[in-house]
Design goal:
- Two copies of one chain form a homodimer.
- Chain A contains eight helices and three strands.
- Chain A is mainly alpha-helical.
- In chain A, strands 1-2 form a two-stranded antiparallel sheet.
- The interface between A and B is large, with 64 and 64 residues.
- Strand 3 of chain A pairs antiparallel with strand 3 of chain B, so a sheet runs across the interface.
- Chain A binds a DNA duplex through helix 2 and helix 3.
Chain lengths: 182, 182
DNA sequence: AAATGCATGTAAGACGTTACATGATTTT
DNA sequence: AAAATCATGTAACGTCTTACATGCATTT
């Protein structure tokens, strides 16, 4: 029988180890400042998954304490590298999921008042402006990174900027309509 | 003690019932052609959640069979309407989550070949082109809908079009770089 | 001395999908 | 007669977050 396919979080971890991240802590820090906006991971997933990947023979860990502080560093096994490369092959239907509460509120906004609708779009814009600022602050460090991370950052910035601009334009448009109605 | 806050799926259901959707089946169909691209829901969530919402007194269901075919139609209670309106108030941090396997592959694409990177971006583009086509096919029906659904559809189309265009441009850019290197 | 950062981990619960099962009605 | 649609539901499983617990090292 074929090996069980990589779990969602398993894929990030394998990739991160391939990029040279060693410990669970290290992976988590890096995820938070690089893939977080399109693929998050929590400690509660990372540490158990590191175990499973090791049990499956895809990574190996060695204890490398820093002083008296426990630390396990991981690297890919040949099987792990193969699994990663297999996963990296293009697929017909790559997973794509969005859960956006702002948009849900916008969808139902006819239930409330026109002012509430505008206020919600404003809140949506402000939230994406914060994300955008975060992404932009990573731009300098990204300049020294390989093309992959640079490209995802570029796309992320473009996407969030697009949302911010749509919100700003829509806020104006709806405000005008409200004024005309008075 | 305050009532338990609405669960994620509870919010869609409450909103859908407010928009006049009656049965679980009806809600599911409508979610699939309207909010699916930013908020999905499955039968496995919907039917148990309808029960919970009824137990919590936010909706009431009545049996209205169509011929010999069982059917339960729901409507909001006053408490349900209040809960919905409370949720509809703007929040500081509305939930926003993305899980995009294409971007993850792009992020790790330095592990593979330049050709593989381009192939993955192409697959990503094609997948978003399919979504875009789906969204565009709903545009006519949306014209008769209230402003909320119209706005989310407009934003969705803009977003997916933005991704498609970025992919197309990046495919060209990377292909040129590859050619220059030869 | 206190705060922050490094480092690992678990338990409980929340959330979600998939696959299956059932059966009536309508369309082809 | 078969296929599609309407309609409801559950069980198993997979996945993920949150909150908590622990303790050393470094910086302030």
């Amino acid at each position: 029988m074929p090996p069980p396919p990589l779990t969602p979080t398993g894929r990030v971890i394998l990739g991160m180890i391939a990029l040279g991240r060693q410990s669970g802590y290290d992976i988590k820090q890096f995820v938070d400042k690089s893939t977080r906006h399109f693929w998050a991971a929590s400690y509660g997933q990372i540490y158990p998954e590191l175990r499973r990947l090791e049990d499956a023979g895809l990574i190996t860990g060695q204890s490398e304490p820093t002083g008296g502080r426990a630390r396990t560093v991981y690297e890919l096994t040949p099987a792990g590298r193969t699994a990663l490369q297999d996963w990296l092959e293009p697929e017909a239907d790559p997973m794509f999921e969005v859960r956006d509460e702002s948009m849900l509120k916008l969808f139902f906004s006819d239930i409330g008042t026109p002012e509430q609708r505008i206020a919600n779009i404003r809140a949506m814009r402000e939230s994406h402006e914060r994300t955008l600022a975060q992404l932009c602050s990573h731009e300098e460090q990204a300049a020294e990174m390989p093309a992959g991370p640079r490209l995802t950052l570029e796309l992320g910035i473009g996407l969030h900027r697009g949302i911010v601009e749509w919100c700003a334009a829509t806020e104006r448009r709806l405000a005008e309509e409200t004024n005309r109605a008075d």
